[in-house]
Amino acid sequence: MSSCFNGGAGWPEPVVRVQAVSDTCGETIPERYVKLPLDRPSATTLQPAVSHGGGSLNIPVVDMSMPDSGETVRAVDAACREWGFFQAVNHGVSPELLRRARSSWRGFFRQPAEVRERYANSPATYEGYGSRLGTTKGGHLDWGDYYFLHLLPPSIKSHDKWPSLPSTLRDATEEYGEEVVKLCRRVSKVLSKGLGLDGGRLQAAFGGEGGEGACMRVNFYPRCPQPELTLGVAAHSDPGGMTMLLVDDHVRGLQVRKDGQWITVDPVPDAFIVNVGDQIQVLSNAAYKSVEHRVTVSAAEERLSLAFFYNPRSDVPVAPMAELVAPGRPALYPEMTFDEYRAHIRQRGLSGKAQLQSLQNANNSVAS
């Protein structure tokens, strides 16, 4: 039994690993993983949506080989305003490194349970091997395990908290983190220019180069006998600044909400799926939107993804940038640090865009 449970570590109840549930539940998943009927994936959302022209509807694809060009800025700007998502190709991170990072982390989730449990996490920092987000006792759970780790600032990065098996993992993760941070900084400049600002403006609001935060969540979604009843990750918008998502190279699962419809993303090989987080929606005064998304699971295959979160420094106050506030466009959100914002998410778990909407509602009440 100890191989299936994390005995507590600050959680309100024993944590069951979804890998263990998948291996032992037979043809029926436990009730804790069954979503409410309105939240379940339907058969119509398991395939890419069809556009009015008859083709497959997918998030925009942007060539990032010339990030300083006006064409790139316009393409990213349009994607962030209309979708909140785009796929970055020719982004400068080598395909070999992408494969090495994915392979190393897949190797960790294939380690024996007793090896994985050495890194069991707690709600204090979430760093380590986990299977839940919110700290509320009871309620529905997602069909997925994860590994969460810190990369920036350097003062909170600890390789001792990273798995030592497989032997390639730490070096691959270190190199991967360095390269993706560089990519995030390049994209940040493009976003700033799209907003009509100086190229370094968003990064300055994040705390400046070297002052920003970065962390990574490696998601592992085991096979599920009833994928129509559950989700790997419930619908949410990302609470941080910007997310660089490296998805599985052969199993689809990410869905993005567009005009009330769930669209299954058809990933481009070796691309990063980039999405706006809540902090950039706040900083841009809602010019750029953080969009709800979720993850479906498969009865036939397990799935792995690497979500890299590029965030403001945790103690820097975040509010709509002054250049984007005007008499006809008042600030939509109050000032709040990322630490304060994240505390709400960690207590309540993922709940669509409820937290950002509550901030806007509170701000409107004060203004009126």
From TrEMBL:
Domain Fe2OG dioxygenase: 212-312
Reaction catalyzed: jasmonate + 2-oxoglutarate + O2 = (1R,2R)-12-hydroxyjasmonate + succinate + CO2
Domain of life of the organism encoding this protein: Eukaryota
Record's keyword annotation contains Iron: yes
Cofactor: L-ascorbate; Fe(2+); Fe cation
InterPro entries to which the protein is assigned, alphabetical: DIOX_N (IPR026992), IPNS-like_FE2OG_OXY (IPR044861), IPNS-like_sf (IPR027443), Oxoglu/Fe-dep_dioxygenase_dom (IPR005123), Plant_2OG-oxidoreductases (IPR050295)
PROSITE patterns membership: FE2OG_OXY (PS51471)
Pfam families: 2OG-FeII_Oxy (PF03171), DIOX_N (PF14226)
Keyword Transcription regulation included in the entry's annotation: no
Transmembrane parts of this sequence: none
Molecular function as annotated in GO: jasmonic acid hydrolase; metal ion binding; oxidoreductase activity
Keyword terms of this UniProt record: Iron, Jasmonic acid signaling pathway, Metal-binding, Oxidoreductase, Plant defense
An annotated GO BP: defense response
Similarity remark: Belongs to the iron/ascorbate-dependent oxidoreductase family.
Protein name from the UniProt record: Fe2OG dioxygenase domain-containing protein
